[in-house]
Design goal:
The protein is mainly α. It has six helices and two strands; from the N terminus they run αααβααβα. Keywords: Membrane, Transmembrane, Transmembrane helix.
Length: 172
Amino acid sequence: MLSTILVEYPWITTVALVVLVVLGPLVGAWLVPNVPMTRVLLTVSIGAVALLTLVPTSRDLAVGCATEWDLPTLGAVELMANLTLFAPIVLLAGVLTRRPLVALVVASGASAVVEAVQAFATVLGRSCSTNDWLSNTLGSLLGAGLAAAALRLADPLTSVGQEGAPSGRIGS
């Protein structure tokens, strides 16, 4: 159902990505001191990804994984959707733990696990593709960058050149 909507309205993934890039660091910075809210949003995001990737469909598939290495483009609806799928999770996890790179590595590994489950649990009717892992990992990289920006915005003491903060200049 979701894929049908995305095919009919391919601009949705691009708009979601732009909104995420513009608002992600601001919302992330706002969430830094609000740990309980961040945990709830992270849990909801992980649940949504689990539903979108592991709920069974009515297709019969053979065991295996399609090996493709296409980069997401604005016209590639499925690849853009996969890129957008993991970015919020890594943004939220990076803000929560204050370790965006660890969140990136964990999310990339989780995406590989999802693809392996899709490849071998054929009863799910889900197809495995290396493109999905690549797009999810690129989205995770984006999320890590957004989390780093959010953490930087939330902690003015690390901002360069602010009064009382290290400016990086000798003798200041």
